[in-house]
Amino acid sequence: MPHKEDQSEFTPDQYPPFPSDPQFPTVELQTISLQKLEDHDQDEIDRAFEAFKTRGFVYLALAGTEKGDTILHGADEVARVATQTFALPLEEKLKYKPTNKELFGYKNVGATKADQAGTPDTAEFFNVSKNDMILEDDQQMRRAWPPVVMENKALFAKYCRASHATGLLILGLLAEKLGIAQEEIEARHVLEDHAGDHIRFTRGPPRKTVEMPEIQTPSHTDFGTITILMNWLGGLQVWSESSRKIGALEPDVPGEWLWVKPKKGCAIVNLGDAAVKFTNGVLCSGRHRVTPSPGEQGKWPRYSIVYFVRPTDHSKMVTLKGHGIPAADDQDQEGVEAKQWIYQQALGLGSNHLGD
Ligand SMILES: O=C(O)CCC(=O)C(=O)O
Ligand SMILES: [Fe+2]
């Protein structure tokens, strides 16, 4: 078992606040109430729709609903498991590298290029597959997981179910606004069907210098449909201008990086490239990256817990039909399957840790 001090790496009670210095300009995101969305509050749905069309990112206030409370409290527990996972020796973690054109398992520091010059990233990830975690105890998993993950399977299963359902609730409401049939969304995101969905633990090292030149996670848009992110320290930045170009490594429109201040009681929810694809660019997947935390916050290692909702492996990646979706020339085609589509996006980001 890991030592007790390994767990002290995640100490949210001790974190200083995000600095209010103008050298760290922050983005204004809409705060959307999960409870109001669950209650089908039309004003809240309209605000969420606008935000996902223009910026692709919102704060989602979680407290007060069963799913929201599971994510809010579960994220702290998952982060504690993350500290134990990352505390394993590197050679042990490397036994869990991705295989089979999937992104599950361990991504070591430096496995991705942070820029065109090939500068290595500084964050490590561990991606825990939804489909393995939601199995009954007597069912065969597709992959091997470290004992610390296996011991917490029930926690992960609960977290996956709550996050998946929250993502689907939002996607269903956005689909309704666009006139997309609910079955089109549901059929592509059946919980038990195999998908690239996973809980990602991320760990970024404390900042080495005030200048903080290094990038923990390079500029990207998420590949899946919707992402539910829990973080406690600053470091996440979004590109100020929205873009609907799928797959580019760097921003393709002029703008600047703005910090996303973590907000207590809220998840940060953003759409991914699959949502852009399904809606022919009506919905936006916000470009983002992770740098070391600003100011005093940079003294702590930075953890985040991310849930990626992705289309199931055999879903066809085509533009869906709906009154709010401009016609696209792929609408009557078969489309590439999601698993292949996502793998290609990952390779496009310069990942060199992926098996095939
Ligand atoms: O750590 C964060 O705040 C964001 C992580 C992220 O963007 C990702 O893992 O895709
Ligand atoms: Fe991301």
Structure overview:
It is a single chain. 29% of the residues lie in helices and 17% in strands. α4 (66-86) crosses α8 (153-178). The chain is built from eleven helices and 14 strands. The protein has a single domain (12-348), classed as Jelly Rolls (Sandwich). The model is unreliable at 1-7 (pLDDT under 50). The protein has 356 residues and is an alpha+beta fold. The strands form three sheets. It has an eight-stranded mixed beta sheet with strand order 1-2-10-7-12-5-4-3. A four-stranded antiparallel beta sheet has the order 6-11-8-9, with no helix packed on it. The chain has a two-stranded antiparallel ribbon with strand order 13-14. The structure holds 2-oxoglutaric acid and fe (ii) ion. 2-oxoglutaric acid is lined by residues 200, 202, 217, 222, 229, 231, 236, 288, 290, 304, 306.
User: Treating each run of at least 4 consecutive H or I residues as one helix, how many helices?
Assistant: 11
Name of the top-level CATH class: Mainly Beta
In the predicted model, the low-confidence regions spanning at least 5 consecutive residues are 1-7
Residues in helices, as a percent range: 25-40%
Biggest sheet features? 8 strands, mixed
Domain Fe2OG dioxygenase: 195-311
GO molecular function: metal ion binding; oxidoreductase activity
InterPro entries: DIOX_N, IPNS-like_FE2OG_OXY, IPNS-like_sf, Iron_ascorbate_oxido_reductase, Oxoglu/Fe-dep_dioxygenase_dom
Family: Belongs to the iron/ascorbate-dependent oxidoreductase family.
